[in-house]
Specification:
92 residues, mainly alpha, 1 helix
């Protein structure tokens, strides 16, 4: 009789252990999916950061060009003040 009770307790313990293992494995699957999503997001963030650096360099170049154009425009406007219609740099 004691043998059957011990066998029943051991089988019950094995069933509980198996259920626990399956629950943990299921959670590990979810964690693995979350880790893959985080890696994708990290890769996207790094790409966006690189794109931001390129954009910043482009904006700096455009700002330099705008400053050059403003200087040229100031020279052109200054030349229009003469009565002969020539540009101020053409007077020589």
């Amino acid at each position: 009789m004691v043998k059957w009770i011990v066998l029943g307790v051991v089988l019950l313990a094995l069933v509980i252990l198996a259920a626990s293992v399956f629950a943990v494995l299921d959670r590990l699957n979810g964690l693995e999916r979350a880790a893959r999503r985080l890696q994708r997001r990290q890769t996207e963030a790094m790409k966006l950061q690189q794109d931001a650096v390129v954009l910043e360099e482009t904006v700096a170049g455009l700002q330099r060009r705008a400053e050059t154009m403003q200087g040229q425009l100031a020279v052109i406007k200054a030349g229009h003040g003469t009565s002969d219609g020539k540009h101020s740099l053409q007077k020589a």
